[in-house]
Amino acid sequence: MKKLTEANLIETCVFSTEHPELAAQGIWRIGYTTVSKSHDRPSTARDERFGHVHVTLAGSAQVLTGNGWHDLRPGQAYVCPPGESWRWRTTAGKTPWKVMFVRLLAKPDLPLHYAGSNPYVVDQCRKDDLAWAYRRLCMESSSEARPTVIHHLGALCHFHCREIVSGENATANLQDLWSEVLADLSYRWTVDTLAERSGMGREALRMKCVAATGRSPMKHLNHLRMQHACHLLLDQDLTLDEVAEAVGYATAFSFSKAFLSHTGTRPSTYRQKQQ
d(Cα 74, Cα 51) in Å, to the nearest integer? Predict the structure, then answer.
């Protein structure tokens, strides 16, 4: 285990060059950084051999994603797939930024299913799991350094990273999300709101939604709205304006256009056929 101390940060790290058992488990290096003052870590060189994960334990920082700068708060992870560079920056505050970082080897026998091709943020992850595994690894590295124990701790770290990069451990699942949406279809849902409510990043949500429904989040939202609209159109007392508002459309015209595109028939025609 090595320790780096600078004016504005303290960093400890365990390297696979010291423990080859880590490399066998897809971990090139793993460490913990505390940043107490303003600091701008410049972009790293692109390298197809490595992916990177940063998990905030306390404080906050900003990270550069494919969509620009993004705040990274406790319980959130910053993921950079192989071949992408990462960059973070902090500003002086009351709470130092405490972050776990892992440099992951791209190994065909230990595939990682990244939720995006550009750097992205996973909005919720179990931050303490990786931190515990790292603390135990530090203890072992600085004492007996038993290869079998290092091997299993490396496997545990890789397992937690696999959960994080794919978004598997987001606390809210799709079923919870769509139940919330169905309870308020009149709300002006956006993809950013859906991602926030799901506890996932936009790309992670898109991939999981496509895998589960065959549709993107916004297309599935529209599908749910049209299903509910078909039910509401059976009530002859409801006007088209009222149906439109109930399923999240500002006007009867925009609703009719969307309904025609989705069902192949106009709302008025559908209502007549159901009489």
Answer: 21
**Per-residue pLDDT tens over the stretch 184-199:** 999 999 999 998 887 7
Give the class (CATH, top level) of 174-274. mainly alpha
- Pick the closest to residue 268 from 229, 225, 227, 228 (CA basis): 229
Q: What is the pLDDT of residues 50-74, one digit of tens each?
A: 999 999 999 999 999 888 899 999 9
Q: What is the DSSP string of 196-258?
A: HHHTS-HHHHHHHHHHHHSS-HHHHHHHHHHHHHHHHTT-TTS-HHHHHHHTT-SSHHHHHHH
Residue 91's contacts (CB-CB under 8 Å, 6 or more residues apart) are 38
For the domain made up of 2-166, give the CATH fold: Jelly Rolls (2.60.120)
